[in-house]
Amino acid sequence: MFDLSGKKALVTGSTQGIGFAIAKTLSDHGAAVFVNGASSMEKCARAAEQIPGSVPVQADLTKPDDIDRLCDTVGGVDILVLNASIQYKRDWDKFTAEEFDAQMLCNVKSTYMLIKRFAPYMQKQKWGRIVTIGSVNQYNNHPQLLLYGVTKAAQLKLVRNIAPQLAPFGITVNNVAPGAVDTPRNRDALSDTDFYNKVISSIPCGYIGRPEDIAPAVLLLCSEEGRYITGADLVIDGGMCL
Fold it and tell me: Domains along the chain?
């Protein structure tokens, strides 16, 4: 089961955290994986060294030229996992115009542009898997994550609109929404004992998730075994949003 041999996959934002776990899991099941990060080629290469057979590709998804270069470098892929995102924590009226634009460009516009660029190859192959990585913040009203939540809600809207249009071509489009997960992005906040206890108290399962709790669900959606799932929003949060 879950054999991805012969499939090519691009996982954006995959040098660490959830993206890295997804890239490694897809590779472990036979996919040839492109590991992407925004900050430097060196960081991409270090991550790729830990995933046998993977290829590092640096691209900042807020920059149209970088998106073009990424697509040209990768070529067609069978599996597209859109994990890269930018998140700023601010009171609702404290975001700068630059912070607003960065989150919208990376979290929403690049999702649309990359699906648009890679879908024709999948349509020609009559097979494809597209997974966006959302967040429980697409539902929750976090006082400092207003814009991040807005971008994730918009991303889900893209999924639900595009999914029925690509389904006739054997392409599924789904969203996975993680809750509180121990990643480098969250580590500083979770190191505060009071905040950590507050988060734990909001999770019925009683613990913080790990990237490895998210990756298997993405594997299912990217496999032949997940062929009958499209337009879905799979929340993986230990019950946090209940």
Answer: 8-236 (3.40.50.720)
